[in-house]
Amino acid sequence: MSNLVSIDWLYNNIDNKNLVIVDCRFDLQSESYGIDNYKRGHIKNAFFMDVNKDLSSIPQEHGGRHPLPDINEFKLKIENIGIDNSSIVVAYDDGDLAGAARFWWLLKYLGHDKAYVLNGGIKKWIHQGYEIVTDVTIKEKTNYQVNVKKDILCDMYEVKSKLNNPKTVIIDSRSYDRYTGEFEPIDKIGGHIPSAKNVFWQEVLKDNELKEKHELNKIFEFAKKYDEIIVYCGSGITGCVNFLVMREIGLNPKLYAGSWSDWISYEDNQISKGSNE
């Protein structure tokens, strides 16, 4: 089954008591972008989750710019918005999938089956003429049983052990100029993990929606010959988009959650510049 739902599906199921909707809008350049826009208007019954405060923990020496949240703290946060193990959860953002895919990935990591992303996001919702509201959503607190799926996550040491392994492909999800090291607007060092190949996460989108499956299959055709796929980005956010897409076409990647910003925090780690393509 798809990991995405359509705008029409959400509209037709909006009052399902087992449905929990989560607004994950964010902007790396504006910390308050998500909550400000949520307050201006959101999809009916939606709760807000902040990428920096709820879907990440405080950065340390290692772990990257958006370390994964503490499992117990994240568990409490999803319980407080009414998510239990039987909930149907739909995450959305503006349509670029980045914030929504991060939340979706975290739910998958906790072992949640019925987690989905809204294809087209709130922008398509509004474009199709559906209403947005400013009401505060309230649900009863639940109890969530965590079943961590360690096989979808890897750390720096595992990535390091797989460099140049002929059975493993490492995919860098950042823009090509950041991948080559020609341009680095965020992290202190440019370049990429040695042997990594580049698939810019925005390449999977067209008009703020996911491309058709045959197009996605073509983009990731090269990865199908490998036994193992590791995907990363700058800090573990946009890499979740490529992770989602690969799951959508039947591949089973792992996310290097710390990503490039974690990799470069270890002085002895090698970096590559230019292209491996």
From TrEMBL:
<feature type="domain" description="Rhodanese">
    <location>
        <begin position="164"/>
        <end position="272"/>
    </location>
</feature>
<keyword id="KW-0670">Pyruvate</keyword>
<dbReference type="Pfam" id="PF00581">
    <property type="entry name" value="Rhodanese"/>
</dbReference>
<dbReference type="InterPro" id="IPR001763">
    <property type="entry name" value="Rhodanese-like_dom"/>
</dbReference>
<feature type="domain" description="Rhodanese">
    <location>
        <begin position="15"/>
        <end position="134"/>
    </location>
</feature>
<dbReference type="InterPro" id="IPR045078">
    <property type="entry name" value="TST/MPST-like"/>
</dbReference>
<keyword id="KW-0677">Repeat</keyword>
<keyword id="KW-0808">Transferase</keyword>
<dbReference type="InterPro" id="IPR036873">
    <property type="entry name" value="Rhodanese-like_dom_sf"/>
</dbReference>
<dbReference type="GO" id="GO:0004792">
    <property type="term" value="F:thiosulfate-cyanide sulfurtransferase activity"/>
</dbReference>
<protein>
    <submittedName>
        <fullName>3-mercaptopyruvate sulfurtransferase</fullName>
        <ecNumber>2.8.1.2</ecNumber>
    </submittedName>
</protein>
<dbReference type="GO" id="GO:0016784">
    <property type="term" value="F:3-mercaptopyruvate sulfurtransferase activity"/>
</dbReference>
